Amino acid sequence: MNRRGNCIxxxxxxxxxxxxxxxxxxxxxxxxxxxxxxxYGMVNGIEGLLQGKYLDLxxxxxxxxxxxxxxxxxxxxxxxxxxxxxxxxxxxxxxxxLFRFFEAHNIKTVFYIGGNDSMDTVLKLxxxxxxxxxxxxxxxxxxTIDNDLPITDHTPGFGSAAKFVATSLLExxxxxxxxxIPSVTIVEIMGRNAGWLTAAAALARNSYSMAPDLIYLPExxxxxxRFIEDVKAIKEKRKNVIIAVSEGIKDSEGQYISxxxxxxxxxxxxxxxxxxxxxxxxxxxxxxxxxxxxxLNVLQRAGGHIASLTDLxxxxxxxxxxxxxGAQGETAKMICYKxxxxxxxxxxxxxxxxxxxxxxxxxxxxxxxxETQNDVTxxxxxxxxxxxxxEVSLSFTSGIPNYCNIDHLFTxxxxxxxx
Length: 419
Prior knowledge:
This protein is α/β, with parallel strands linked by helices. It is 33% helix and 20% strand. It has helices at residues 19-33, 45-50, 57-60, 64-71, 92-104, 116-131, 158-177, 196-199, 224-235, 275-284, 309-327, 378-384, 414-417, and strands at 6-11, 38-42, 54-56, 107-114, 137-142, 183-189, 214-216, 240-246, 259-264, 270-272, 290-295, 333-342, 345-353, 396-397, 400-401.
């Protein structure tokens, strides 16, 4: 069944180096198979669409060169939002406005690319369409550097962020080892409740460097006294200690080590701040050596210059799958990866019911954390290693990567001028 009509694509949540590759994959699948008459793009996700902000993507991306540039452009070409779609019971007017737009533009399929909260949007839109008999299907395409969406083996964007983290840890080691001065370096890595990205720091280890010497994930209870003893034990063996720690580590009562006492984001998540600095101050009081903390912060999210080729190729593949299934009338599904084997590495894509995914969370299995809870096991290394393989080939202008023009995201009056 070919849906024809038109479709619309949105992006939401935090940026990655691969989310535009998924957008490119959807566009490639549509163009190659003539699946829809026209393709629109929400600007700033559902929130932007409610404000009347959208693009005609069919007019902007018509050649392989344009789509390749989009594939290699980090972050969101369409912009993002942190908008929590209310329930229909609390604000049906929002749904009426959205579906009025879909009807007016002959939208047959909505593709939404994002993480946990974005899949909640997919769930709510698809349920509303079904309950009110709208001929609109909704497909979720995963995205998150946190790698914490259920069902799928991994998420687009995670492999590139993992490659960035591992590369950064190796370069920090090179920076640290040059001085004949005892030191402790704490590297704070993103991950609220899932430690996948922090675990990827272990991929930095090689024949001459064991950094990071210690790894702490939020899945394991963090004990400050045991932490101090762990560091002292490494210091007895090595002059320099390098530690990878997740921003979301918690104590035995489940309290974030670094949590603010009051600040929360728009989704009600407690804002985390300064676990690296907290541990730095703790160790300074205990150790007679130099201690510093480094927060990778937003740098790990959209490092297009060090993206994983495997990640980008799979993101294009998952986008193409979404385009095909959307045209066939599938709805209320998220497209997932299934790992067939590690060596040689091979995956395939499949669709899964969004009701079993939205508002769920996948964390690192405890059996993949060592017994002393300060490192990861070889099974986790085997899982991670294939995801960071391959290097991208970027085009450059004046020595800087030649990414897609995104002036529609920040030019005042852009949408009034381009109506």
